[in-house]
């Protein structure tokens, strides 16, 4: 009986042990599973909160406005994005000799700076459409992750509106962007450690007596260190250099196909002789005479046009070479004879044709230098009435060849200014250089104009223009000539109100 009782007790203890073992094993497994899940959640949260390094590259006439609003949108989300200065991107692109707005160039720059994405904003004018096109390029391979339809603002003030409309699509692309993978670093082989040589033991007989312990010394007081102010950190400013291809493309896009103006002009004329020996030469004034100068008052139709035929096909300097022409034609003009009793129909006309070349310069091509070569004719003719006309007033017809220089400038969002100055060489002067008047004369002419334009929209503007043409003569008379005088000045002031166009 005692033996059976022992066997039963042992069996009961063995069963209880078998039941407890699985429970003890299960507890650590549950704990480890919970630990793994929490670690996974923490790693995902770390990935979500990790900010992407993003750079903004803007070009075109409204580049500053586009860059400001894009960087503002990124800075509003500091947990998602870290903005890299545009100057750093331009400097990296210059060192590598790439275009950061293209896929290969964007990937190369992103690899050097660790960028996840590059936001490329183009505000240039394409044809007759002024637009804002924004592209998100992936930092890993430079591919376009988002490129919404281009918006069409009229002024820089509408650029922020256009950017905000596209921001939802742009942010989707930014969330897909990835930074370039870091290159694997080869492991450094361990440096072998040479064993230190074993020194032979010193014999007991030669062992020196133990040295006395040195007396403790009072430690020197530590010198007082004054805090040194940290030097202000200077940000690396790299010169912003645009790639030649980008600048050439912007230049070609901004080159117009045609530009010109039409409007009404008021004309004046004053012909004055110098050193009239016999006092028989009659001066002429068209308009109100103020101190020997005629004020503009005679109506004329005025128009000019310049066509750039190679602009649609060229992206370089030839896109700025244009064919130019202008005409001023009077209507309803009359002149009176010496007695003032008869009015004679009068024609005042000027036309010019030639070549013009414009060289833009300055930030966003706000300025331009002009060179113009022309051939033209300026006619002032008094027609006869009943077969008679005033014989004391010569009809002039100046045929000229000249060269002019000009400067155009964009003063603001609405105002443009243009100034031109030139020299005209008279090849013929009509009756004034004939044998009946002054056959041995020499002549020259200068021209000048100033124009202020107010832009109504991208194509049309309103212009106020003041101009002057001044011919000067030296007659070189000899005894026996019908008229004897030292010279003359024939000048034509004008004031125009025109509607301009640029397409």
UniProtKB/TrEMBL annotation:
Residues 186-213 have a biased composition (Pro residues). The keyword Signal applies. Keywords: Signal. Residues 172-255 are annotated as: Disordered. Residues 1-26 form the signal peptide. The keyword Cytoplasm does not apply. Residues 214-225, 232-244 have a biased composition (Basic and acidic residues). This is Outer membrane protein beta-barrel domain-containing protein.
């Amino acid at each position: 009986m005692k033996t059976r009782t022992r066997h039963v007790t042992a069996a009961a203890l063995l069963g209880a042990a078998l039941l407890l073992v699985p429970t003890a094993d299960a507890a650590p497994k549950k704990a480890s599973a919970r630990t793994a899940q929490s670690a996974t959640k923490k790693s995902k949260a770390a990935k979500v909160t990790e900010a992407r390094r993003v750079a903004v590259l803007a070009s075109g006439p409204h580049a500053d406005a586009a860059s400001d609003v894009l960087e503002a949108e990124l800075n509003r989300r500091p947990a998602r994005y870290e903005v890299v200065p545009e100057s750093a991107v331009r400097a990296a692109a210059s060192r590598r000799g790439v275009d950061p707005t293209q896929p290969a160039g964007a990937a190369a720059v992103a690899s050097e700076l660790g960028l996840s994405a590059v936001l490329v904003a183009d505000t240039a004018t394409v044809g007759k459409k002024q637009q804002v096109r924004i592209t998100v390029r992936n930092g890993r391979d430079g591919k376009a992750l988002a490129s919404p339809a281009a918006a069409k603002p009229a002024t820089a003030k509408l650029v922020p509106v256009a950017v905000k409309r596209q921001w939802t699509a742009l942010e989707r692309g930014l969330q897909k962007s990835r930074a370039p993978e870091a290159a694997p670093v080869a492991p450094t082989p361990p440096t072998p450690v040479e064993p230190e040589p074993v020194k032979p033991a010193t014999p007991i007989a030669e062992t020196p007596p133990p040295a006395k312990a040195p007396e403790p010394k009072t430690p020197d007081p530590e010198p007082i260190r004054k805090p040194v102010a940290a030097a202000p950190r200077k940000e690396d400013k790299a010169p912003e250099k645009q790639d030649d291809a980008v600048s050439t493309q912007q230049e070609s896009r901004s080159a117009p196909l045609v530009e010109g103006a039409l409007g009404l002009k008021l004309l004046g004329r004053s012909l004055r002789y110098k050193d009239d020996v016999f006092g028989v030469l009659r001066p002429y004034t068209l308009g109100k005479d103020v101190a020997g100068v005629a004020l503009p008052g005679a109506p004329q139709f005025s128009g000019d046009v310049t066509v750039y035929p190679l602009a649609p096909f060229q992206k370089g300097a030839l896109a700025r070479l244009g064919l130019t022409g202008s005409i001023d034609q009077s209507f309803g003009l009359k002149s009176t004879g010496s007695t003032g009793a008869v009015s004679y129909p009068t024609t005042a006309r000027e036309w010019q044709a030639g070549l013009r070349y414009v060289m833009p310069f300055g930030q966003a091509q706000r300025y331009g230098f002009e060179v113009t070569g022309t051939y033209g004719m300026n006619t002032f003719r008094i027609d006869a009435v009943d077969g008679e006309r005033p014989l004391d007033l010569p009809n002039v017809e100046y045929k000229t060849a000249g060269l002019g220089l000009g400067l155009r400038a964009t003063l603001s969002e609405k105002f443009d200014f243009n100034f031109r100055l030139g020299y005209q060489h008279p090849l013929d002067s009509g009756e004034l250089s004939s044998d009946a008047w002054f056959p041995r004369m020499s002549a020259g002419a200068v021209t000048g104009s100033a124009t202020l334009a107010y832009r109504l929209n991208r194509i049309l503007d309103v212009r106020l223009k003041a101009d002057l043409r001044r011919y000067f003569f030296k007659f070189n008379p000899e005894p026996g000539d019908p008229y004897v005088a030292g010279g003359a000045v024939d000048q034509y002031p004008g004031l125009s109100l025109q509607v301009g166009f640029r397409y």
